[in-house]
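Project outcomes to date are best conveyed with an example. Our students and postdoctoral researchers have been running inverse folding experiments weekly, and each run begins with a structure described purely in C-alpha cells. The record below, which covers 499 residues, was selected by the lab manager from last quarter's runs and is presented without edits.
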C-alpha cells in the first residue's frame, strides 16, 4: 500500500483493538495497525486481518506514514502508564491538526492532563469511552467521545459509522470537552456494576428463599425480559441459568465460583461521587459486594464461626414473592440511574462540560452492556425537562415508584428476615426513603446554634454580601450560566404537577 492512504490507524492489538479494526474495515475504512510486540501484529495480519483493507506496520514511523492527513490515530492499550508511553512515541511524529484518540478506560483526569499537554503542539486529543466489550467492538460499540468540538468533527464520519445503530441513530454523540467522554464511560461502568448486583440479589431471593431451581429461574428472567426490565443483562441472565457444567452435569450457576473482581472504574466513580457530594449508594453497594465476594477464603472461615440466622422455611405465596422481587429490581434500578445521572449532571457543572443527559441515555441504548428498553424512558424524561434535578421527580418514574413501592418493601424485608444479603436493594430503598422525606432524623446531630448579637449579625451579613464569592452571579464566578437554580427547578416541577 502507498503511504498516506489509510483513513485511520489503531495502536494496540489486544482483544478490543483487533475487533475495532475489523469493525472499521467492515464499514469501508482502511486501517493501519501497530502493536508494541511485533509478533502480535504479524499474527493478526496473517490471521483475522488477512486479505482485508488493513495495513500492518512494524515501527511507529511506518504507522504514521501510512495515515491520511489530518492523521487519526486511535490507542487501545492498557490504561495508565502504557497510554503515556504510546503518546510519547507517537506525538513527536504528528503535526498540528492531527488527532490522537484514546479509546481505553483511562481516568478522566489523565485525559484532561494529556489533552492540555498535546494542545501545546496543536495536536487534538480525544478521550473516548468505548463500551460493549469485545463483541461490541466488533459489531458496533457505544462510543462516548470527549475533546474539542473541532476534533469531534474530524473523527465523526468514522465514529458514527462504526458505532451500534438503534432506530437509525448511531450510539455515538459528542459528549463535551477534555475528560467528558471518559467521565461518562466511568459512570456508565459504575451503573453497570449496580445493574449486575441488583440482578444477583434478585437471584439470591428467588433461589435461597423461594427455592427456585435453574430452569424456573431461567423462565422467570425470560418472562421479565418481555416487560419493563427488557435488557441485555436480563436476557443473558436467563440464558446463563440454562447452561450446564459439562464436568458435573449440574447447572453452571450452581458450580461457578462466587468471587467477583473489579477494575478501576467502579472505585473511581465512588471517589468522584464523594468529591462532588453526590449519593450513589446503589453503585457503592455493588462495589462493596464485589470486595466482600473476593474474600472467599475468609468468608468460608467466618461461616464456621459466626452465628447463622434461625429462619423458618418460606411458606408464603411464591408467585407474589416473584412479583415483589421483579418490582424491587425495577425500582432499585431507577434509583441507581437517578443517582448516576445526578453525578453526571454535577460533574458537568463542576468541569463546565455542558453534558446532555438525554444524549447520554440515547447512546447507551445500543452496543453497550447496560443497553435496555428502559433507557428510552430516561431519554423521554430529559426531553420533558432537560434540567430535571433527579430522575425520580419525572412523572413517569414517580408513578413507577408509587406502583412498585409496596412490593419493593416486601422483597427487602423478606430478604432481611431470611438472612439473605441484599445491599443494593436496601441501599436503593433507603435512598428513596431519605430523599422523599421533608424532615429527617439528622436533626438530632445538630445542636441548636446561638443567634449572634444583632449588631454582629448585621456586620456578618454585610461582609457576606460584599465578599462571599457565592453571592456573585454564576457567570462572574466563571461558572456556566444556569437558567434556573435548583430551588426554582423544584418549584417549577411542583407547579407543573399541580395542574
Ligand atoms: P489490554 O488492556 O489487555 O492491553 C493490552 C494491550 O496494551 C496490548 O496491545 C499491549 O501490547 C499493550 N501495551 C501494554 Br499492556 N503496555 C504497553 C506499553 N507500555 N506500550 C505500548 N503498548 C502497551 O487490552 P484490551 O482488553 O483490548 O483493552 C484495551 C483498552 O480498552 C483498555 O484500556 C481497557 O480497559 C479498555 N476496554 C476493555 C474492554 C474489554 O472488554 N476488554 C471493554 C471496554 C474498554 P503488547 O501486545 O506488546 O503487550
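After processing, the design step wrote out the following sequence:
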Amino acid at each position: 500500500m502507498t503511504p498516506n492512504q489509510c483513513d485511520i490507524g489503531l495502536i494496540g492489538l489486544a482483544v478490543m483493538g483487533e475487533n475495532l479494526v475489523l469493525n472499521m474495515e467492515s464499514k469501508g475504512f482502511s486501517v493501519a495497525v501497530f502493536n508494541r510486540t511485533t509478533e502480535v501484529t504479524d499474527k493478526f495480519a496473517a490471521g483475522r486481518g488477512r486479505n482485508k483493507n488493513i495495513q500492518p506496520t512494524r515501527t511507529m514511523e511506518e504507522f504514521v506514514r501510512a495515515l491520511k492527513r489530518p492523521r487519526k490515530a486511535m490507542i487501545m492499550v492498557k490504561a495508565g502508564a502504557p497510554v503515556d508511553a504510546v503518546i510519547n512515541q507517537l506525538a513527536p511524529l504528528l503535526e498540528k491538526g492531527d488527532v490522537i484518540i484514546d479509546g481505553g478506560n483511562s481516568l478522566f483526569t489523565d485525559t484532561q492532563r494529556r489533552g492540555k499537554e498535546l494542545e501545546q503542539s496543536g495536536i487534538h486529543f480525544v478521550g473516548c469511552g468505548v463500551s460493549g466489550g469485545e463483541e461490541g467492538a466488533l459489531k458496533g460499540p457505544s462510543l462516548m467521545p470527549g475533546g474539542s468540538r473541532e476534533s469531534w468533527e474530524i473523527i465523526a464520519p468514522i465514529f458514527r459509522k462504526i458505532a451500534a445503530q438503534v432506530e437509525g441513530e448511531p450510539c455515538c454523540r459528542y459528549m463535551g470537552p477534555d475528560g467528558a467522554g471518559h467521565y461518562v464511560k466511568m459512570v456508565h461502568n459504575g451503573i453497570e456494576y449496580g445493574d449486575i448486583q441488583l440482578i444477583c440479589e434478585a437471584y439470591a431471593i428467588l433461589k435461597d428463599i423461594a427455592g427456585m431451581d435453574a430452569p424456573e429461574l431461567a423462565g422467570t428472567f425470560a418472562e421479565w425480559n418481555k416487560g419493563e426490565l427488557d435488557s441485555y443483562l436480563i436476557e443473558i441472565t436467563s440464558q446463563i441459568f440454562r447452561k450446564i457444567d459439562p464436568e458435573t452435569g449440574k447447572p453452571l450457576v450452581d458450580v461457578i465460583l462466587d468471587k467477583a473482581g473489579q477494575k478501576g472504574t467502579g472505585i473511581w466513580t465512588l471517589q468522584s461521587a464523594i468529591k462532588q457530594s453526590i449519593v450513589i449508594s446503589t453503585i457503592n453497594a455493588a462495589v462493596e459486594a464485589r470486595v466482600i465476594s473476593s474474600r472467599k477464603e475468609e468468608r468460608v472461615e467466618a461461616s464456621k464461626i459466626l452465628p447463622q440466622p434461625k429462619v423458618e422455611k418460606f411458606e408464603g405465596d411464591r408467585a407474589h414473592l416473584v412479583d415483589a422481587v421483579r418490582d424491587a429490581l425495577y425500582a432499585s434500578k431507577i434509583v441507581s440511574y437517578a443517582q448516576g445521572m445526578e453525578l453526571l449532571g454535577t460533574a458537568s457543572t463542576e468541569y463546565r462540560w455542558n453534558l446532555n443527559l438525554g444524549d447520554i441515555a440515547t447512546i447507551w441504548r445500543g452496543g453497550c452492556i447496560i443497553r435496555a428498553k428502559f433507557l428510552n424512558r430516561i431519554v423521554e424524561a430529559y426531553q420533558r425537562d432537560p434540567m430535571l434535578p433527579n430522575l425520580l421527580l419525572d412523572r413517569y418514574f414517580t408513578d413507577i415508584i408509587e406502583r412498585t413501592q409496596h412490593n419493593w418493601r416486601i422483597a427487602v424485608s423478606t430478604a432481611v428476615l431470611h438472612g439473605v444479603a441484599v445491599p443494593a436493594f436496601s441501599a436503593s430503598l433507603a435512598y428513596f426513603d431519605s430523599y422523599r422525606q421533608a424532615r429527617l432524623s439528622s436533626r438530632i446531630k445538630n445542636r441548636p446554634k446561638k443567634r449572634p448579637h444583632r449588631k454582629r449579625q448585621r456586620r456578618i451579613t454585610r461582609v457576606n454580601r460584599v465578599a462571599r464569592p457565592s453571592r456573585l452571579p454564576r457567570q462572574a464566578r466563571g461558572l456556566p450560566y444556569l437558567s434556573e437554580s435548583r430551588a426554582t427547578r423544584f418549584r417549577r416541577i411542583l407547579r407543573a404537577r399541580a395542574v
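Strands lie at 8-11, 31-34, 54-56, 72-75, 99-102, 124-131, 142-146, 165-166, 169-170. Residues 463-469, 471-481 have pLDDT under 50 and may be disordered. The training component of this project remains on track.
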